[in-house]
TrEMBL record:
Keywords, sorted A to Z: ATP-binding, Nucleotide-binding, Transport
Protein name per its UniProtKB record: Multidrug efflux system ATP-binding protein
Superkingdom, taxonomy of origin: Bacteria
Family: Belongs to the ABC transporter superfamily.
Species: Methylobacterium gregans
GO MF, one example: ATP binding
Length: 242
């Protein structure tokens, strides 16, 4: 696929669990440098969407493609283009941030020198005084920054963020927003599953409201203030549930 093609393309994706339909024809296209916030309450299908992209689930209908690779037919090939940063980033607690980054880079087949690793940690927003500190003493925000650095090292085309600002204080949340924007400026596409209405205005280029298993509204968050965004979000969810 050409570099300017979609990084992520979901076309008519349906996923059922027994009698329950989690996704009912989800369409989504994401290009390099875009940050897309998938906004919805718990149970709306955000985690199901992420698991389909990662190839941990297969769609009952429709297609999920990452850089043109079908995530259902070739999950390993699709995941090669993806960096997943969960709500709680798991690092080896006895290793430093620097050692964790270099270790995970090695698992990805990369030979990452100390100087390059420190530069990536700094770019991800982790202060130099924390590079050599054991990760077991890190806050959630610090662990997320190491996760971003790992993604930058791998040059992942797609970053998947699952509730990334949950549990962060306002300062750490604002700093994480800047880190995500910096990753997008490097050319990564970012899909963020969240229900944080406040931060999406700062982080996202587009917001999709997920209701009844599909995107019921797509919004440019910069065109609305926080109050108007919240009102529209609640209205669309109420309409989809009717």
């Amino acid at each position: 696929m050409a570099d300017d093609g979609p990084v992520l393309a979901l076309d008519g994706v349906v996923k059922r669990f027994g009698q329950r339909t989690a996704l009912a024809g989800l369409d989504l296209t994401l290009r390099p440098g875009e940050v897309f916030a998938l906004l919805g309450p718990n149970g709306a299908g955000k985690t199901t969407t992420i698991n389909l992209i990662l190839g941990f689930l297969r769609a009952d209908a429709g297609t999920v493609r990452v850089r043109g690779v079908d995530a259902g037919a070739d999950p390993v090939g699709a995941r090669a283009h993806v960096a997943y940063i969960p709500e709680q980033v798991a690092l080896y607690p006895t290793l430093s941030g620097l050692e964790n980054l270099r270790y995970f880079a090695t698992l990805a087949g990369l030979d990452l020198g100390k100087a390059e690793a420190r530069a990536l940690l700094a770019e991800a927003g982790l202060g130099g005084d924390a590079h050599d500190r054991a990760a077991g003493a890190y806050s959630k925000g610090m662990r997320q920054k190491v996760g971003i650095a790992i993604a930058l090292a791998r040059r992942a085309g797609l970053l998947l963020l699952d509730e990334p600002t949950s549990g962060l204080d306002p300062g750490a949340s604002a700093e994480f927003s800047r880190t995500v924007r910096a990753a997008a400026e490097r050319g990564s596409a970012v899909l963020m599953a969240t229900h944080d209405l406040y931060r999406v205005r700062e982080m996202a280029d587009r917001v999709g409201v997920l209701g009844a298993g599909r995107i019921v509204e797509e919004i440019d968050p910069r065109c609305l203030d926080h109050v108007a965004l919240e009102r529209l979000y609640i209205e669309r969810l109420s309409e989809s549930a009717a």
